[in-house]
Design a protein that fits this description.
The chain is built from seven helices and no strands. It is an all-alpha fold. The longest helix has 30 residues. The radius of gyration is 17 Å and the shape is globular. The chain starts with a helix and ends with a helix.
Length: 188
């Protein structure tokens, strides 16, 4: 089973890679941002629905940081929605992207320095693994490679792997498809 801290950090690293791709510009910028949106929305929802409340319950002095993190989610999601709806070639789009990336980097840094250590200190390994499994279920995320969850042996491709396969096969509409839709659309 995956540890919740590993899963969250793994998703953070995946988002960072996708944002770097978006910042390179070109034809893939919009698709990369759509992937960021597809990953971040369920990530934020899962954190807000059970991760943050668990942190607040075990360590009440982090309540303000939890509140700030929820507000940051809302702000980042709004900026991301504007970017996804916009055109990478329009004036100001690069500036909006840079601002959103800066906000997100700040959020991730605070979360990894202030909130995730609470999970490591206040929750048992079994509790963290149970939370990690729930997070994976609720976000549709892959179990992070190299973590305690990597020995499960699932041959199920990740959404990113399916997206890349759909890109190779020139599947239309791939950037807005869910993992299941991508799975149905790609040819083995």
């Amino acid at each position: 089973m995956p540890d919740i801290v590993e899963v969250i950090k793994g998703q953070h690293r995946e988002v960072e890679k996708l944002l770097a791709k978006a910042q390179e510009g070109g034809a893939e910028a919009a698709a990369a941002l759509q992937q960021v949106s597809d990953l971040l929305m369920p990530h934020s929802e899962a954190e807000e629905s059970f991760v943050y409340p668990a942190i607040r319950e075990r360590q009440g002095e982090e309540a303000d940081q939890v509140h700030d993190s929820v507000e940051e989610h809302k702000h980042i999601e709004g900026m991301l929605a504007e970017l996804v709806a916009g055109d990478p070639d329009e004036a100001g789009w690069d500036g909006k992207l840079a601002a959103m990336v800066g906000e997100l980097e700040h959020h991730v840094e605070e979360e990894e320095q202030d909130l995730l250590p609470v999970l490591e200190k206040e929750f048992s390994a079994a509790e963290r693994e149970e939370m990690g499994a729930r997070f994976v279920r609720e976000t549709g995320a892959a179990v992070p490679a190299g973590g305690s969850g990597s020995t499960g042996g699932s041959d199920e491709p990740t959404k990113d792997e399916l997206y890349e396969k759909a890109k190779e096969q020139d599947v239309p509409g791939r950037s807005t498809m869910t993992k299941d839709e991508l799975k149905d659309a790609v040819e083995d």
